[in-house]
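Continuing the batch. This is chain 6 of the set; chains 1 through 5 are on the previous pages. Same settings as before, nothing changed between runs. Recording input and output for traceability.
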Amino acid sequence: MEKLKKEILAVLAEDSRLSYTQIACSLQADEAAVKKCIREMEAVGILVKYTAIINADYLDDDAVEALIEVKVTPQRGHGFDMIAEEVAAHSEVQNLYLMSGAYDLAVIVRGKSLREVSRFVSEKISTYDSVISTATHFILKKYKVEGAVMQKPSGGDRLSVHA
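Output for chain 6:
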């Protein structure tokens, strides 16, 4: 079953829209076994969410995303988990990672404007007692997300220059 799990995860990582039948066919596996395996992985939390990767360049959306590095003092008996849970509870937080290096947490946030993201950092993140410092980096352009290249169709806005 472990081999089947890994194969299913690889297929779903490429296209999570596939049906049980399509997955079973591509893996040359029994459809009932594929369905059972997927449901088990959902139940235990291996498969957490099915989602779409959206290229915002095609949308009329002026939202802003930022990566916020956060240096914190770990709490006795809880390490980084307690502060991470508190930060993760904010609706602005899209992703949250424990990191090695100069900062402990990497927080990806989304807001309607630069000001909204700035307020989030100054009024929410930096107010936690265990937060020592933050560094905010606004995301200007996404080139690749979750393995998918974020590009417009060829023939973009730039002119070709030949010598």
